[in-house]
Amino acid sequence: MDKKISGQLQQLYACYSSDTFVTQSVDKIALGFEGIKDDRHAGMTRKSDARTPWYTRGTDIKNTRQLSLVSTEELETIAQKMEVESVKAEWLGANMLVSGVSDFTLLPIGSRLFFDNGAVIVIEGENLPCINPAKVIAAYYQNKDLEKRFAKAAKEKRGVVAWIEKEGMVHAPSQFKIMLPRQRLYPGLMGK
Amino acid sequence: MDKKISGQLQQLYACYSSDTFVTQSVDKIALGFEGIKDDRHAGMTRKSDARTPWYTRGTDIKNTRQLSLVSTEELETIAQKMEVESVKAEWLGANMLVSGVSDFTLLPIGSRLFFDNGAVIVIEGENLPCINPAKVIAAYYQNKDLEKRFAKAAKEKRGVVAWIEKEGMVHAPSQFKIMLPRQRLYPGLMGK
Q1: What pLDDT is stored for residue B128 in this prediction?
Q2: Which pLDDT tens digit goes with each residue over A108-138?
């Protein structure tokens, strides 16, 4: 825990439906090794999809996309770039809305978030923008043009996905701390 | 798979004992989501230990140390630095001995290794040198002084630990490919 970054957990969300990825605000969530119990993305494994193009679609793989996190600051930037009043965390299927962490989406793979009550999650990586949230935003504002603008506006701002390392209850609002992994660029590719 | 690195899988090992971490050579291994079936380090979860000092020892956490990998080139360097004839993979409790990957221990967190028969593992990170392999080496060469030399000689050369993302049989000798994650340093700490 050399380098500690603190952040605020503003709001929690879950999706208990198989019909939509849009999440709904909840007071607290129980994080288990499988994710949020009964949530759409819960599971020790999942089927590979467009996010893992190196696998045949539908292959069973370890589930490292149990949670989706976004930040208030980055959502505001996306909204400004799209020229809309706001972009809501639930439209992006987020489970956690945080604030106070600069460049939140660029947190390194392997960063750990320590929540107040003991739960710990590990960042799997950036959540690349895709068309589904864009459709939700366009539908809300009844402006089809917004669909095309989302991916560009959300580049490196769309938050991260994470998996649960240590179980626990999480409530919001609350605080969390971030432990960054040791960072260095791989020397094995230098000069190649 | 922008940047492909190839490597050779030279030898496989497993440890089916609870009395020692020293591994034994095997022809093939079945990688499941829990790791190597019946191996000492198999499991979807594990108890936290000295490797995870940020948790109370014995806490249930997700198991991302299912496999230990070392490289022939780095083992040779360790042996040279320790001034011994050789340091064997099994003394370090390794499950895979690879060759042909420069700076193997420094592969980034999140690097994926694709094996011939379809199994895929993800690098959790560097395996920090500890005292147990040092004791095995010192005992083999009947030279107690070697215990102290191991950690320094093995710095950034002791290999990596990994978890299974996609199941499959793995045999050796065989080939594998490495997909590096997107690499960049976290800008959020600049100037802090």
Answers
A1: 87
A2: 999 999 999 899 999 999 998 788 999 999 9
Q: Is B54 on the interface with A (CB under 8 A)?
A: yes
ipTM of this complex prediction, to 2 decimal places: 0.93
- Give chain A's residues under pLDDT 70: 1-3, 190-192
Query: Are the beta carbons of A102 and B33 separated by less than 8 Å?
Result: no
Report the chain B residue with the minimal C-alpha distance to residue A59: B166
H/E segment holding residue A171: strand A168-171
Q: Is the CB of residue B183 less than 8 Å away from at least one CB of chain A?
A: yes
Q: Which domains, ranges and CATH numbers included, belong to chain B?
A: 4-181 (2.40.33.20)
A125 conformational bin, left if phi > 0, alpha if psi -120 to 50, beta if neither: left
Q: What's the pTM?
A: 0.94
Query: Of the candidates B55, B62, B180, which has its C-beta nearest A163's C-beta?
Result: B62
Cα separation, A65 vs B140, in Å, equals 45
Q: Which residue of A has its CA nearest to B102?
A: A188
